Amino acid sequence: MSYISNFFYIFFTNSFTAKFTFVMQQYSxxxxxxxxxxxxLMAQFRSPSAVLFSFAFPFIFILVxxxxxxxxxxxxxxxxxxxxxxxxxxxxDSIKVSNRIKIVRFETEGELRSNLVxxxxxxxxxxxxxxxxxxxxxxxxxTTSASSDKWPQFMPIVNSIVNxxxxxxxxxxxxxxxxxxxxxxxxxxxxxxxxxDFILPGQLGFSLLSSGVFGVAFxxxxxxxxxVLKRFFATPISRTYIILGEGLARVIFQMIxxxxxxxxxxxxxxxxxxxxxxxxxEMLVLSFLGLIVFMGLGFIVxxxxxxxxxIPPFANLLTLPQFLIGGTFFSVEAFPKWLQPISKAxxxxxxxxxxxxxxxxxxxxxxVRDEIGILLLWGVVIxxxxxxxxxxx
Length: 393
Fold this sequence. Notes:
By secondary structure, the protein is of the alpha/beta class. Helices cover about 60% and strands about 5% of the residues. Mean pLDDT is about 80; it is low at about 15-25 and about 70-75.
């Protein structure tokens, strides 16, 4: 049974039993809106496509990446250099041209710290020149337990580079450099940043964008084409409450989906909710804001579409770029530099970034206000366009 068939059946068979008595009693816009919401919500739960795109697809991706864990990938180790690192030596020169080690730089200490605690870099590497004693240099790395899968493999690579330098350029002399690494001193014990901590917020964003664009576009286009909206106009309910009723149903459905995705990720794969229930609630607030913005895109598609078959091309034009370069499956930093500004301008990117900062880093909503502000700015622009293109008939 299609969504519209479900809607017709539920709305017209339950409107009277749900006390939607606008004929026999004094008319209430709120009661009418709630009746529409109830019928639409039940229709969504009965619609296979709504459940598939909002819940099943994201959950399948979470299962796949959750079982994969942190394995795989090319073993290239990213390091930041200590601000006092000596760079006038053969060890630094060799590391700089190594195909196994990549030196990265950050604009602020906060950005460096964020990458360090999330395990996105191996650690902060330092080379010290010894004043009077041999060997000539000492090297060490400051890291965190979040990079416990990286630094144990990184240090042997550096050791082999040192041995190569010593054997080729300093034959017969003491080794060129020695490590000075102490586990207790140089490793900060923090929570581990797991693959699921990156993947789950991206899949939640995927679910919100899919539901907001495809769900709203198909829903209002079909309500218009099947003359359901025209039948609504025969009742005293205002157009505003029609939209609010349908929107409320979409929000309730998607918030339930968000809770299921987050809770399943937490208990099945150890997704990090650093502050427990508080973090869950903050993620739901972000989900709500993101969904409202994405629903505006759905209104635009609904207004522009001239047939059922024209909805997917319009919707994919708005969603596919965000799925691919919005930080859903891969970090924005993994893209070419020319593509990163485009990626960082997309609303889904800012939603995903805020979700990850709240869930793992423990930031509150005020601390991700820049991401929220850009998301709301997108919302203003999107709804300004939606008002212009949306059609009731």
